[in-house]
Design goal:
Layout lengths: L7 E3 H15 L3 H16 L1 E3 L14 E6 L5 E7 L10 E3 L3 H6 L7 E6 L2 E12 L10
Parallel strand pairs: 1-2, 4-5
Antiparallel strand pairs: 3-4, 3-7, 6-7
Helix pairs in contact: 1-2
Length: 139
Amino acid sequence: MQQARRIYVTEFDRVRLEDLLAAAEAFGEAAWQELEPLAAELDRAEVVSSREVPADVVTMNSRVRLRDLASEREMTYALVFPRDANVEAGAISILAPIGTALLGYARGDVVEWRVPSGLRRLRIEEVVYQPEAAGDFHL
């Protein structure tokens, strides 16, 4: 795995994601085990206000262009809450391994995570849309 680097999460996103984690705990140990990576990311994130988050950081509802470093294939996804997830429409859940891996990272960063076939590596080529940078932020 890659060395952990500093990631940023807005206070607004942190509160909503912690609420999501708390709700999942009610479903028992199996549900919680799948959410541990997200909890760990939130624990190590630097929490900033919506006004302070750098414009090239992936926040909730950001749209990002990614490059698969193995295939060189590019893809664009929005990082969304589970209820809005639709892979065919390019909306991936924060609870999906790729979603958890992207949260808080910035343009140029390489995110890695284990899949059954090995290690998957994607580089964030561009944050096409970030709600906070577009002025759609919460204090």
